[in-house]
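#lab-general

N.A. 3:47 PM
ok so I finally got the sequence cleaned up, no stray characters, all 104 residues accounted for. can someone with queue access submit it? mine expired

B.Y. 3:52 PM
send it over

N.A. 3:53 PM
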Amino acid sequence: MNEYLKNIFIDRKKVNLFVKGTDFQIDVWKALLNIPYAALSTYQDIAKSIGRPKAVRAVASAIGSNDIAFLIPCHRVIAKSGAMSGYRWGIDKKKILQKYEKDK
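B.Y. 4:20 PM
back already:
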């Protein structure tokens, strides 16, 4: 396995990324990086954590615009009800990623 991929997917080492987005999107993506491995958060929790508690829909939109899903872990965000809400790559993939993290 490529050393870079091993560092990310096996050893879970932090990597430096250059991402491009609005200030709001970047704030949301930074909040996603603060969700502990294998833990879950809600869109509302993310909105509160960036100081925009009423911006839940905007948070969901910013999460959906994340192009590097595993490295910026949007799969760790669920609806307040606990439901598996939308995921850019499909709910089945979201469940697989959550199970993968839980089992490691």
